Write the structure tokens for this entry.
Amino acid sequence: MRALSRHVAVCAAVFAGGASVAGCDQVASVVVVEVRPFRDAERRVVVDVDVEGVEQSGRTAGAYCVSLHVFPLGFPPTSSDQPRYTSALEVVEQCDAGLGDGDRRTFRFVTARTDYVTGQPLRVQVRLGRIYDREEAFVP
């Protein structure tokens, strides 16, 4: 239910702005359910991300991409969702397809760098067409 309400909220915001986005006329989305950042033995940042499909027509949600963005300290959260952010220090992305309603998948992202400091902002987002869902977290 949480996933469906998040999808409806995204579509309502799009329609309120006067825009039409593919996917908002059908109830289909992939949403971020949980974000779990930690450090591995090499001091890289590892982030496990659970996503869930929301699809009310009996089909699958379609192709989607999940990404991790690492920002410098002091980065103010932006309200505009984008595939890439110019201020991101590192981006890791994985794409997949085929989540049905209520199906979950866990993605694991590992940064290449080991010099990120505790408290640096992280953004995890999932993109299905032009519809985004995101969660903010911090480097542990």
